[in-house]
Amino acid sequence: MAGGEQEGVAVPSQNKGSWSSFLKSIASFNGDLSSMTAPAFILSTTSLTEFSAYWSEMPGLLVAPANEPDPQKRAMLVLKWFLSTLKQQYASRNEKLGSEKKPLNPFLGELFLGKWEDAEGETQLVSEQVSHHPPVTAYSIWNNKHGVRLQGYNAQKATFSRTIHVKQVGHALLHLDKYNEDYLITLPPLHIESLITGSPYVELNKSTYIVGSNGYTSRIDYSGKGWVSGTKNALSAIMYPHGQEKDKQAVIYTADGTWTDTFTIKDAKKNTVLTYNAKREPKTPLTVAPIDQQDPLETRRAWKRVADAIMKGDMSATGSEKTVIEERQRALRKQEAAEKKEWERRFFSRVDRLPVSEKLFKDVPGGSMDADQTGGIWVFDQEKARNARPPFSALSEQLKNGWK
Ligand code: HC3
């Protein structure tokens, strides 16, 4: 089922009261999504640290640009890969769960580690909650066989006006070793549709920019049902040489369609280059260590008791198990304050400047790093990763072989 196909499904009668109280409570809501209290039936057992995996569920598409010698085609393949991630990022939960649910709010230091193994070799994932206030998740995804590295971090700022509107802060950076090329990717704002009916789904707003250090930029514009296109999850993209956004003659590729179904990429002569079908593209399953072999900071181990309680629909146990995690976190923060120490992030570090991204941001209209909203700029720290000790069991060997 694609995102939102459940649209119009009424809230089950036993949940109607809690849903309307929830709607009333969020009408005055502004800011931090983690402070939102949602009714039991809309709680997810998945933490936001797991969402980083959505960037690479089709590793073949992520690594494809690394094997394309033509710079324009390479930038187009980066656009294709990015568009292919949208359904995973923003609609896959509707498919699995029937509607968008409220994810678990990660604690500081929470980790999600895994790998995809397929014809492209091993593609590794490290995701870490690097800040709790504001909530910020950082991730690194890399494939040494193809020399492809993606890293990024994100936070969300929410406001309420008829529905929940979310501004994403942070960015992603894709690096292709062979061409020593970087692509800055901005994150689109979004809002929640069908909130009133109790079958929420995500619709994307405004634009994403993908700025390549090879001189090509892609701009993707989003629209939904209430817009001129009238189509749900619609997208329209152009790829052009830097600085020529307004010049229609300069467009090298266009992409049109929907991110939950089909989009087509055409060249400047309007010849179809490729058609992508989001429903048919095969995914590679992510391998995660069995829970008993995970580190206590790993998300599925840390949240297991909460997740079990949610699955059983036991709200009292859900609440008390969440309190156990929250109190442990409070005690840790207290201890750190007393020792004048800061929590040591296991895989990422805060940096003052990230020149590669700053330079590429110059080609994003109105774009900036917004480091003040993400508790700093976060980068994957190879030194930390190399020294990361088991029990990061599934990954310890791969981490030693780190990036390059
Ligand atoms: C807004 C959101 C949490 C944040 C999710 C983000 C932005 C996280 C980073 C990923 O890379 C992309 C992504 C996808 C979906 C975003 C979620 C959709 C809904 C969720 C809200 C906190 C839930 C609102 C509650 C309810 C009941 C309406 O679903």
Compact summary:
It contains nine helices and 20 strands. It has 404 residues and is of the alpha+beta class. The radius of gyration is 21 Å and the shape is globular.
Plain-language structure description:
- One of its GO terms (cellular component) is cytosol.
- α5 runs antiparallel to α6.
- 24% of the residues lie in helices and 32% in strands.
- It has a single domain, classed as Porin (Beta Barrel).
- It is globular, with a radius of gyration of 21 Å.
- It has nine helices and 20 strands.
- The chain has 404 residues and is α+β, with helices and mostly antiparallel strands.
- The strands form three sheets. The protein has a 16-stranded antiparallel beta sheet that branches. The protein has a two-stranded parallel ribbon with strand order 2-3.
- The protein binds 25-hydroxycholesterol.
Reconstruct the topology from this structure.
Layout: H1 16-26, E1 30-31, E2 43-47, H2 59-63, H3 71-97, E3 102-104, E4 111-118, E5 121-131, E6 136-143, E7 148-161, E8 163-176, E9 181-186, E10 190-193, E11 201-204, E12 207-212, E13 216-223, E14 234-241, E15 253-258, E16 262-267, E17 272-277, E18 286-287, H4 299-302, H5 304-312, H6 315-338, E19 348-351, H7 355-361, E20 377-380, H8 382-387, H9 396-400
Parallel strand pairs: 2-3
Antiparallel strand pairs: 1-7, 4-5, 4-18, 5-6, 6-7, 7-8, 8-9, 8-10, 9-12, 10-11, 12-13, 13-14, 14-15, 15-16, 16-17, 19-20
Helix pairs in contact: 5-6
25-hydroxycholesterol is lined by residues 33, 38, 42, 48, 51, 54, 89-90, 100-103, 154, 156, 164, 166, 168, 192, 195, 200, 202.
Pfam families: Oxysterol_BP
GO molecular function: oxysterol binding
Organism: Friedmanniomyces endolithicus
